[in-house]
């Protein structure tokens, strides 16, 4: 396969500490053209930028995940804005709400989420949204701010997906579409317009069948693509080409060849 654009991965995760360089150096030989490495806190956001500077095919997203907002420094918006100065930083994320773990009070989660949405809108940067068991509050804030972006690892209903699309946003689909009894993700994968779908892994998490339970990397996105192509009754090559273009349209508008974007220095990071 070729034309794999993994719109969401976490190669800074400790799961890759032993062989990160080997994995990343081998991805392009497996058909992976580009990856967005997504930050979850200030440290991982800085690592995402570092990866983008080292590997021409990697881009960075920077932001604070709802489970990571405890002890967040007050000047975190300034840090995010500094990281956005890197030309290969293409989004704020991942940000949002997580009512499954509830590691922080929900009003605090909403405050931090709202602050980062404001940053994205003010600076015309896409957002990568985390929404776990917080669909109503997530949609309320998305409708309020109307950012460009994607709801990553989409877990809502088809009706919610269509509401997201009405806002001009994208739906991120990953390994969950291959899971047994995965009704909603499969229905969304089948019915959502193809020009609103992004493929992702969430590596090292959400590994698709037949490798579920093992560490995920971007090369395994092909199993997700095969499932989505099957339910849509289209060729997998068609799906990969279209979802690659969708990712370029969202994160790299006006760029025909994402890997040619100039790499900035690490000064000040």
What's the topology here?
Elements: E1 4-9, H1 20-26, E2 32-38, H2 42-54, E3 58-62, H3 76-83, E4 89-98, H4 106-122, E5 127-132, H5 135-145, E6 149-151, H6 158-166, E7 170-173, H7 183-191, E8 197-199, H8 221-232, H9 236-251
Parallel strand pairs: 1-2, 2-3, 3-4, 4-5, 5-6, 6-7, 7-8
Helix pairs in contact: 2-3, 4-5, 7-8, 8-9
Main features:
TIM Barrel, alpha/beta
Could you walk me through the main structural features you see in this protein, from its secondary elements to its overall organization?
By secondary structure, the chain is an alpha/beta fold. The protein has one domain: TIM Barrel. It has helices spanning 20-26, 42-54, 76-83, 106-122, 135-145, 158-166, 183-191, 221-232, 236-251, and strands spanning 4-9, 32-38, 58-62, 89-98, 127-132, 149-151, 170-173, 197-199. Strands 1-2-3-4-5-6-7-8 form an eight-stranded parallel β-sheet.
By CATH, the architecture is named Alpha-Beta Barrel
At the fold tier of CATH, the topology name is TIM Barrel
Mean pLDDT: 94
The CATH H-level superfamily is Metal-dependent hydrolases
Tally the helices: what do you get? 9
Give the N-terminus to C-terminus distance in angstroms.
Answer: 36 Å
Condensed summary:
By secondary structure, the chain is of the alpha/beta class.
């Amino acid at each position: 396969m070729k034309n794999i654009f993994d719109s969401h991965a976490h190669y800074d995760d400790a799961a890759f500490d032993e062989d990160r360089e080997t994995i990343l150096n081998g991805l392009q030989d497996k058909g992976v053209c580009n990856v967005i490495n997504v930050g979850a806190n200030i440290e991982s956001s800085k690592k995402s930028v570092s990866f983008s500077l080292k590997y021409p095919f990697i881009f960075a997203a920077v932001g604070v995940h709802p489970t990571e907002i405890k002890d967040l420094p007050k000047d975190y918006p300034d840090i995010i804005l500094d990281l956005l100065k890197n030309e290969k930083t293409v989004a704020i994320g991942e940000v949002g709400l997580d009512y499954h773990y509830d590691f922080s009070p929900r009003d605090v989660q909403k405050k931090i989420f709202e602050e980062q949405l404001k940053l994205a809108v003010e600076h015309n940067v896409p957002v990568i949204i985390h929404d776990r068991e917080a669909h109503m509050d997530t949609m309320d804030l998305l409708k309020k701010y109307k950012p460009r972006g994607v709801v990553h690892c989409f877990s809502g209903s088809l009706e919610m997906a269509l509401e997201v699309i009405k806002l001009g946003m994208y739906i991120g689909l990953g390994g969950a579409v291959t899971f047994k009894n995965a009704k909603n993700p499969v229905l969304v994968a089948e019915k959502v317009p193809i020009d609103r779908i992004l493929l992702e892994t969430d590596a090292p998490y959400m590994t698709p069948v037949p490798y579920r339970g093992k560490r995920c990397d971007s090369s395994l996105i092909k199993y997700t693509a095969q499932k989505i192509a099957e339910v849509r009754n289209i060729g997998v090559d068609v799906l990969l080409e279209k979802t690659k273009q969708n990712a370029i349209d969202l994160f790299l508008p006006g760029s025909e060849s994402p890997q040619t974007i100039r790499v900035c220095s690490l000064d000040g990071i």
